[in-house]
Amino acid sequence: MQQLERFRSLSPAEFFYRNKEIAGFSNPARALYQSIRELVENALDATDSYGILPVIKVSIDSGIIPDKPEVYLISVEDNGIGIPPDNIPQAFAQLLYSSKYVLRQTRGMFGIGVKMAVLYSQITTGKPVEVLSSTINSSRIYMFRLSIDIKNNRPVIHHKASFKKSSEWHGTIVKLFIEGDWNRAKSKVYEYFKRTAIIAPYATIIFKDPTDNVVYFKRSTTLMPKPPKEVKPHPHGVDIELLKMLISNTTTTTLKEFLIEEFQGIGEVTSKTITELLKLNPDKDPKELSNDEIELLAKVLKEFNNFKPPRPDSLSYLGEEIIKIGLESILKPEFVTANTRKPSVYEGHAFIVEVGLAYGGNIPLSEEPLLLRFANKIPLLYDERSDVSWKVVNQNIDWSLYEVEKPAPLAVLVHICSTKIPYKGVGKESIADVPEIENEIEKGIREVARELKTYIVRRRKEREEVEKAIGIIKFIPDIAKSLSSIVNDVPYNSLSSELFKLVLKKFKNVKIRGIDDVVVSVE
Question: Which of 156, 167, 239, 403 lies at a CB distance of 3.0 to 4.6 Å from 456, suitable for a disulfide?
């Protein structure tokens, strides 16, 4: 007799336990890098999103567990707002639990990242995560040792304690054991910190690796991006299920009030127009809408074209000055520029594209521009060629039109900030080819590329002027000598000096101190 299929559900923790690769934990090297990245992103979100200049301390230690050199202890400390003790267990040991499920730009999106690091730690070492945290106004520090009940997706508290604070410290410290491969992860980890220092030059980052090598990225500015605000959903981003949730949670009692209070960009006039299109009474209780009426409302909201664009208040863009400071402090270029585009929208979500360009200086020559990709201030290091930015930089743009001769010392920074980044996977490493985003990236790059072209052309003209000036100055000694033999009462040195002044007057932008800088005398 044929046996029937058995069905069961999986908790989120059990799903990611079975499919950890899709969250970026595919092997020990990638897992070590991903864990550091998730912890540092949480630390930065807890600081700059609240107007606090970040001080982030990261250490990786090996040899902590005897006979297990592959196990590392990661420790990340921040000076952020801290986490209320009642939220700490769920924040670190319950997947899909997060403070980031709001319509506001944050580095995290899915409520998965740091919990995946805890889960991977648990799978590979069996050890709990240790969390110490204190909020700004608290007089105590709270400590938890936690693991995840994988079957039920619930936190397991192994130990809990609190201590009276002896200082004004506030923030969070996370300590995590993990099986990793430092030798293979090393280059990515260092590159991650380098790029974080570029995108967040207002942060101080101290990193100690397993060999006790310490790298100190000192903040190069106190200028910070404006923290994002939580906003209401835009009508164009609404679907049937979101409408049902909004209706279920609303305190409004009329359809008119519901539209005005629960969405951005809808006022009295627009609300009236929508209810007329729906052929519904504006005083009807939204909780009494039928499924067909909710479906029609979702359709009208998506297709109505007279809504204002989504408000950019929910976005925390860097601004051109911070981008230039970041590129200058790390890459040390001879030329740098940046462009912050105006807010745009895709699928009802506001986004802003920012582009930076650095040229020359310490940037190495390369056939392809050094591409620095960021999303919501997160450095993206993997899957570069599948990212929309790579497509624009290397396929859409003909750099020869901007006087760039390859190999060139060229770096291009692309930062996309949005309440919803269209990542290609939960590992958050590459961004999909959304036409609206691609278009804004291309416009931004062409803008800074035109500035680079102006610089290269000007520098080339200056170089040509210098070469012409040098070509003339080389003959001054011979000309002065011949003239002095004809005009006996004018000394050779005076003639040389006057001729040199005439050349400098002709080539005003040329900086040459004297004839001896050009002509080597032979006695």
Answer: 403
Q: Answer whether CATH 1.10.8.50 is correct for domain 235-303.
A: yes
pLDDT of residue 24 exceeding 90, the answer is no
pLDDT score of 350: 85
- φ/ψ (deg, to 5) at 27: -160, 170
Burial class (CB in 10 A: 0-12, 13-18, 19+), 249: exposed
pTM score, two decimals? 0.81
- Taking the C-alpha atoms of residue 296 and residue 277, their distance in angstroms, rounded to an integer, is 10
With H, G, I as helix, E, B as strand and everything else as coil, classify residue 121: helix
Span 66-111, pLDDT tens digits: 888 899 999 999 999 999 999 999 989 887 765 543 445 555 544 5
Q: How confident is the model at residue 264 (pLDDT cuts 50, 70, 90)?
A: confident
CA dihedral 437, 439, 440, 445 (to 10 degrees): 120
Please say whether the beta carbons of 146 and 158 come within 8 A: yes
Rounded to an integer, what distance in angstroms lies between the CA atom of residue 47 and that of residue 171?
9
Residue 523: what pLDDT?
Answer: 42
Residue range(s) occupied by CATH 1.10.8.50 in the chain:
235-303
Could you give the residue range(s) of every CATH 3.30.230.10 domain in the chain?
A: 314-455
Please write the tens of the pLDDT for every residue from 350-393: 899 999 999 999 999 999 999 999 999 999 998 899 999 999 99
Q: Pairing state of beta strands 378-380 and 335-340?
A: unpaired
| Nearest residue to 108 via CA among 441, 426, 453 | 426
User: Each residue of 73-93: b (16+ CB within 10 Å) or e?
Assistant: bbbbbbbbbbbebeebbbbbb
468-496 mean pLDDT = 72
Residue type (1 letter), 31: A
In the chain, residues under CATH classification 3.30.565.10 are 12-217
pLDDT at 16: 57
Q: Pairing state of beta strands 410-418 and 370-375?
A: parallel
CA distance 264 to 115: 33
Residue 363 CA to residue 411 CA, distance in Å, equals 7
State residue 200's pLDDT score: 96
Rounded CA gap, 39 and 278, in Å?
Answer: 48
Which residue is associated with the tokens 């170089």? 463
Task: Give helix 240-249 / helix 291-303 axis angle, nearest 10°.
Answer: 110
Please give the C-alpha separations between residue 486 and each of 298, 475, 479, 495, 515, in angstroms, as whole numbers. Answer: 96, 17, 11, 12, 22
CATH architecture group of domain 12-217: 2-Layer Sandwich (3.30)
Fold of domain 314-455: Ribosomal Protein S5; domain 2 (3.30.230)
